[in-house]
Amino acid sequence: MKPIQIKAARKRLWAALITTFFVLVITQDLVIPIAPLKVLEQKLIDFRFEERGEIDFKDSAKVIILEITQEAYDQIPSPYNSWPRKYFAKIIENLNDAGVKAIGIDLIMSNPDKFSEENDRELMEAIGNYRNVVVAGKIDIDAEAAYEGRGDRAIIRSTEDNFSNIFFGVDSSIGIVQAVSDNDGVYRRYVPYIFSAVQNKKIPSFAYAVLNKYFGNESFYTAEKSDGHFLYNNTFIPEYEESTVLVNYYGANGKFPRVKFIDVLDDSDFLTVDEIDFETEINTWDNPDYGLKYSGLFKDKIVLIGSTMPEDKDIIPVSFSPGLRKGDNLLYGVEYHANAIQNFIEQKFLYSLSESYEIIIVIVLTLVLFFVTSLIKRIKSKKAVLIELIIVSSILLTLFIIFRLSVHFFESDNLILPVIDPMLAIIFGYVGSTVYEFFVERQQSTMMKNMFSQYVSGNLVNELIANPDKLRLGGEKKNLTVLFSDIAGFTSFSEGKTAEEVVSFINEFLDEMTESVLTFNGTLDKYLGDSVMAFWGAPVEFDDHAILACRSALDMKERLELLNKRWNQGEVSTKMRIGINTGEVVVGNIGGQKRFDYTVMGDNVNLASRLEGVNKFYGTSIILSEATYNIIKDHFVTRKLDTIRVKGKSKATNVYELLSDVQSNIDWDFENFNQGLLEYQKGNFEKAILYFESQLKLNYDAVSELYLNRCNELIKNVPVDWDGISNITEK
């Protein structure tokens, strides 16, 4: 790889790394959290629940909700207008008779029973006797500050020892019911435990306290947090964030089996309002024919007692929504806990990628999109707009695929794949690459304008800017056409003129010659005093570079004639000598680190220079090499001048005079000259003289006169080893 390419690659790498760092700052909250992005990611979790739909777990449900409804309140007999605590004691007794394994009372009982202390005593006795009951507790702080992440635990400050429940002291079976909502108020997560600063210990959340009873654990047994997961009851629970787990909701509100509180309470020892009014016992609990006690429904199950009355305001928005109407994602608090319990029992956890994996994904996607987009953008094409549309369409398709994959893996593997972060990585990878390539193109455009505006035409500069792949800086071999021009008789012309007049003429002359080179898409190499060096075919390649060079040469002659008319004013006219050769040369930026020129080098360049000087021996203006002639012969009027061997070369070459374009109106008649040259090269000098004399009778021709003189001299002293080749020993 060339140094300039290495430098460009380093710049591109730095741009990619800066873009990647920017994406990491945005997606990984390295500086400040960007709440809208987090909320959007959370909303996409909700959408995945909606796409997946409900989970059918009717046969495997381990949790039954004993719901307190308005209908149950209506069946409370006088003198009570609400539930006395002894009714809960009765419920505990009945449920245990039916084989229930654990009971959770999702009601905060912070004050004594308002009817009688005896009611509290009966409930305490029931809790103490069966030892499978969990009561609900809370930390007495404002709801907004209920949860504060500190390291590996959730710290909540408390000022009470019984966690707002007077039954905590019976067997210390308490479960914290306070839940954690996300920024948008939706409850997607569950806290396995909460750390109490007053108790200086971890307190299990309500669901995990109930699970302690279900599995026979100690009351204050809690999950242990490790690297990216919790360990509870020898089971790994994937951590989501901030010491929480995601709740894998089974469905909408009412998904779990529900039994009315009054139906478990209504046994043979209890009379409901209806039983009193109709003087008929129903006994929904222990009737031998249809009683719930004998149905087997509660055997080895977990029963959660809680309110399903809207007026109790124990209802929260959750991730799952049937999507039928606004607000159908509301779930009663008791069912929120039921989902968390059932998740653990069935081990239907929702998994998410670790932060390190997310970072790797973001880095890889950003870099891949940056470099792929950069590579495509560097491939210049006339269909650039179409290519850009294809790129954008491909990116949009990729974003859609990422989203659909997230839904697929959620449905099939309970895996929460990040969506927003990879999408941002792709988008910013594309944007970063686009911005970088834009500035690179501007830099290249400026460089090319500065480098080539003095050497090539504006159209070529624009083409190089639009298609920089046509530019190959640095030495390389290419087939080009090289032109050298010089002013003949300039010394005589400048005699008697002031230095200012001479400089003015040279400047005007060079300006006209430069304009001619640029007009015919040539590259101006350099000025050598009053001489011009130019070439065609680089930096932009042309198949017809030899033809363009010849047209420029003829145009130079015409421009010089116009200059002579303006400057001459009856004085001696100036003439041009031009040499043109086509062949393989080395072209590129040649020079030192701080100073270099875009130029050509090689034997074929030297030959073009020699041909320019050869003109003075033949009195011609434009001489072509045989290589150039073979390319342009069908487009221009030419004649063969000679076969020569220039100084420094052992191999002879045919040279030709360029006369005009084939479409010109000039009637060139050099048949006699051509025949004379043929006889001359054969050594038939007498015949050659006749042809040259005939040519001179038609019109004056300096070349014919030259050959006529040569023949006369050669007749006097005929060479023994004549090969028809003229050796040019001067430059």
Protein topology:
Elements: H1 3-27, H2 35-52, E1 63-68, H3 70-74, H4 85-97, E2 102-105, H5 117-130, E3 133-137, E4 149-150, E5 153-156, H6 168-171, E6 174-176, E7 189-190, E8 193-196, E9 201-204, H7 206-215, E10 224-226, E11 229-232, E12 235-238, E13 245-246, E14 258-260, H8 261-265, H9 273-278, E15 302-307, E16 315-317, E17 330-332, H10 333-346, E18 351-352, H11 355-378, H12 384-413, E19 415-416, H13 420-452, H14 458-466, E20 476-488, H15 490-494, H16 499-519, E21 523-528, E22 531-536, H17 545-567, E23 575-591, E24 596-601, H18 603-618, E25 622-625, H19 626-632, E26 636-646, E27 653-661, H20 671-682, H21 685-698, H22 702-716, E28 726-728
Parallel strand pairs: 1-14, 1-15, 2-3, 2-15, 3-6, 5-8, 18-19, 23-25, 26-28
Antiparallel strand pairs: 4-5, 7-13, 8-9, 10-11, 11-12, 16-17, 20-22, 20-23, 21-22, 23-24, 25-27, 26-27
Helix pairs in contact: 1-11, 1-13, 2-12, 4-5, 7-10, 11-13, 13-14, 16-17, 20-21, 21-22
